[in-house]
Amino acid sequence: MIVALLLSVWAAAIAGFDWWRRKVPNAALVLTLVPASLALVFQGQGLLGQRWQDSLLGMAIAFALALPGYLRRGLGAGDVKFAAVLGLLLGTARSFEMLLGAAILMGCVAGVMLLRGARGSAKFPAAPMLAAAFVVEVFCGPMLSL
User: What are the residue ranges in the chain where pLDDT is below 50?
Assistant: First the structure.
């Protein structure tokens, strides 16, 4: 439970930094990527208890699903890397849920921006939505039976 709380604070810090600076700091990603990778190698499971294969597949899936957003210039490279690290932490099924939750939040934010008269090219930081979906997934998930 302490690890989940620390990871949630870490994700919230990245979200706050992205909100104010419109950038996800690579150093903050490495700060969690290194211990998460070491846990996989030496313990055979991720920081949140999932099998190492599930963690790596979760990372690959999160990266693959976020990459088109980067290619269409809707997400920044830092957002894609952040999603991949969150996928490593959550594992396969929970990464799908986290990305689904983040996509719903992003859609709501985009809808509010359109209602306020923002142009279609207006951008907003994605890390806060990814972080919020991550925290919900950590403390309330899994919610879907995949």
Answer: none
